[in-house]
Design goal:
The chain is of the alpha/beta class. The chain has helices spanning about 1-15, 40-50, 75-85, 105-115, 120-125, 130-135, 140-155, 185, and strands at about 30-35, 55-60, 90-95, 165-170, 175-180. It has a five-stranded mixed sheet with strand order 2-1-3-4-5, with helices on both faces. The termini are far apart. Keywords: Metal-binding, Zinc. Belongs to the beta-class carbonic anhydrase family.
Length: about 190
């Protein structure tokens, strides 16, 4: 069982004081705040590709590195990272071959229903069926999606205007970055 494996490993990790090499404080030393995708291929690749070590950045992950609402929990995390944890720049980093590419909310709800999820209760509890059906919607272009998320962040009334917000796309096979939005150009 995976939990048992994790707990056995963790006990040895703590006993061996393997954590010592990761010690840092809560403030990002490079003052970077990154919104990226939860894709497992990025777990080690992204930090290596952008030269980050433990403690350098606040990394917020969600499906598709997408931000679609100013009250989204990822936006709250970005604002906390900027205002309370000394972040100074925001990077939205999506990736090629993302699972959110061409994902349709209605298809996702059908899949959830097939796997035993109570879609009917979810739809009844939602503020509107239209919103409920589009909540899982992905995007047609990763470039447009990261630009849209970056624009939403940059225009948030609680984000200081001097904070640069960048949008990039990473190739999960090579780590190559493509700049979609240079936040220095947008803030000057």
């Amino acid at each position: 069982m995976l939990l048992d494996d994790i707990l056995v490993h963790n006990q040895k990790f703590v006993e061996d004081k393997a954590y010592a090499q990761y010690e840092t404080d809560k403030f990002p030393s490079k003052k970077a705040v990154i919104l990226t995708c939860m894709d497992a291929r990025l777990l080690e690749l992204l930090p290596k590709a952008v030269n980050l070590k433990n403690g350098d950045a606040k990394i917020i992950q969600n499906a598709g590195a997408m931000l679609v609402d100013t009250s989204d929990s990822a936006m709250k995390s970005i604002l906390v990272a900027i205002h309370a944890l000394k972040g100074e720049e925001v990077f939205v980093i999506g990736h090629k071959d993302c699972g959110m590419h061409h994902l349709h909310g209605s298809d996702m709800l059908q899949q959830i229903s097939k796997q035993g999820g109570d879609v009917e209760t979810y739809l009844r509890q939602s503020s509107s069926e239209d919103i409920a059906n589009t909540w899982f919607d992905g995007f047609n272009s990763v470039e447009e999606s990261v630009e849209s998320s970056a624009t939403l962040i940059a225009n948030h009334p609680l984000l200081p205007k001097q904070v640069p917000v960048h949008a990039l796309v990473i190739d999960p096979a090579t780590g190559e970055l493509t700049v979609i939005r240079n936040g220095y150009e947008k803030t000057n």
